[in-house]
Amino acid sequence: MKAAEFNLPDQNGQFHKLSDFLGKWVVLYFYPKDDTPGCTKEACGFRDNFKKLADLGIIVLGVSKDGVLSHKKFHEKYNLNFLLLSDEDKKVINAYNAWGKKSFMGREYFGIFRKTYLIDPKGEIKKVYEKVADPKGHAEEIINDIKSFSLV
User: Fold this and answer.
1) DSSP letter (8 states) at residue 124
2) Which of 6, 33, 41, 82 can pair with 60 through a Cys bridge, CB separation 3.0 to 4.6 Å?
3) Overall number of domains in the chain
4) Rounded CA gap, 36 and 58, in Å?
5) Do the domain assignments include residue 135?
6) CA quadruple 69, 86, 80, 138: dihedral, nearest 10
7) Any idea what DSSP says for residue 25?
8) Looking at the domain assignment, is residue 2 inside a domain?
9) What are the residues whose beta carbons fall under 8 Å from the beta carbon of 4, sequence distance 6 or more?
10) Residue 117 domain boundaries
11) CA 17, 74, 97: angle at the middle one, nearest 5?
């Protein structure tokens, strides 16, 4: 299945389209909020595994509905080495089915699911991680999957 095209600003306000990355593997991960415990663990996991991912030819793109300034602060605070994309109107988040009803401690609300798409160099979705159970180990999970699938 073809991945939905987008054009979103990064933490510096520079716009990026998915098609800019054709020819490379893309990890497109959606996360609820900048600088929260689970999201920080997930982002730092990608940061710490950046070389392994890059060696496999993989680009990492994080997406949340936080604004560019929030992304910039989060990016700088944790020395992140990949792009964080801002989707304040949730068009891309909705296109990738990463928005919906959630519950926490008996309270229901709408929010972003922690969800990841592995997109091949032709722009096709190869794997969807519907619910990321271990944000800290998610990058390693993807690396292991890619090696086991022999996708690159």
Assistant:
1) B
2) 82
3) 1
4) 25
5) yes
6) 140
7) E
8) no
9) 18, 92, 95, 96
10) 23-149
11) 45
